[in-house]
Write a structure and sequence with these properties.
Catalytic activity: prostamide F2alpha + [thioredoxin]-disulfide = prostamide H2 + [thioredoxin]-dithiol; prostaglandin H2 + [thioredoxin]-dithiol = prostaglandin F2alpha + [thioredoxin]-disulfide
Strand content: 5-15%
Low-confidence stretches: 5-34, 233-238
Protein name: Prostamide/prostaglandin F synthase
Strand order of the largest sheet: 2-1-5-4-3-6-7
Mean pLDDT: 81
CATH architecture: 3-Layer(aba) Sandwich
GO molecular function: oxidoreductase activity
Order of helices and strands: HHEEEHHEHEHHHEEH
InterPro entries: PXL2A/B/C, Thioredoxin-like_sf
Radius of gyration: 21 Å
Number of helices: 9
Organism: Ceratopteris richardii (Triangle waterfern)
Distance between the termini: 67 Å
Structural class: alpha/beta
CATH class: Alpha Beta
Length: 238
């Protein structure tokens, strides 16, 4: 049986295309972070305690502080933002602010950490987060804990899957500036470095409930704020 050069070339091209798509898909699906650590473990604290983050708004005047200082004297909630311009990140930061007064009343420190300065001014001007804020230049925390980025193909699928979450943040402004494929995390670490909650995103909309954070911090349910089930005020920043 004879094959024309055209048919042979077409078959080869199809094989290359199929292989390329397979590689891209495998990279896209390999986006989840390493398995979350068990409650009571000090693995996360040990891995990131010496990471230095840049102070945007902090408890001291130091330009850089070590992450380990956050849980030196008290329990801390560490919320690692994906991207300052992300609509969902802004919306979730607004949601998280609902429990800040309650956490402070129970001597729990709460901190937000961004991965880059791009979009920082808009984030601050919009009032999306009014608490302590730091920048992890170079994503050292992500590297230490193997918190992965989302693959190209899977990122498009996620945008479809999270459409309901995007509707909730419809009136919150956002943009596409920055690293849009990096996932985030939320940790609750007790004084001394013991893990109380290790939550790592599986998609862009994945967030721990406010109730789960309060529970991890040991807050009695009778002390939960009354606004947990009300939607945050919508903020629009030019």
């Amino acid at each position: 049986m004879r094959f024309s050069r055209v048919s042979v070339f077409s078959a080869a091209a199809a094989a290359v295309a199929a292989t390329s798509l397979s590689v891209l898909f495998s990279r896209a699906t390999f986006h989840q972070a390493a398995m979350a650590t068990q409650k009571g473990s000090t693995h996360v604290a040990d891995a990131i305690k010496d990471v230095e983050v840049e102070t945007v708004r902090g408890a001291s005047d130091s330009n850089y502080v070590k992450v380990g200082s956050f849980w030196q004297d008290q329990t801390v909630v560490i919320h690692i933002l994906r991207r300052f311009g992300c609509k969902l990140c802004r919306y979730n930061a607004l949601e998280l602010q609902k429990i800040v007064p309650t956490l402070e009343d129970h001597n729990v420190r709460i901190i937000a950490i961004g991965i880059e300065k791009l979009g920082l001014k808009e984030f601050q001007d919009g009032g999306f987060w009014n608490g302590e804020l730091y920048i992890d230049n170079g994503k050292k925390i992500h590297n230490a804990l193997s918190i992965k980025s989302v693959g190209i193909l899977n990122s498009f699928k996620m945008l479809y899957d999270i459409r309901d979450a995007l509707k909730k943040a419809n009136d919150v402004s956002g943009n596409l500036k920055g690293d849009g494929r990096q996932l985030g995390a939320t940790f609750v670490i007790a004084k001394g470095g013991t893990m109380l909650m290790d939550f790592r995103q599986k998609d862009f909309a994945d967030q721990p409930s406010l109730e789960s954070i309060l529970e991890a911090c040991g807050v009695d349910r009778k002390d939960y704020p009354s606004n947990l089930n009300t939607e945050s005020e919508r903020l629009v920043c030019d």
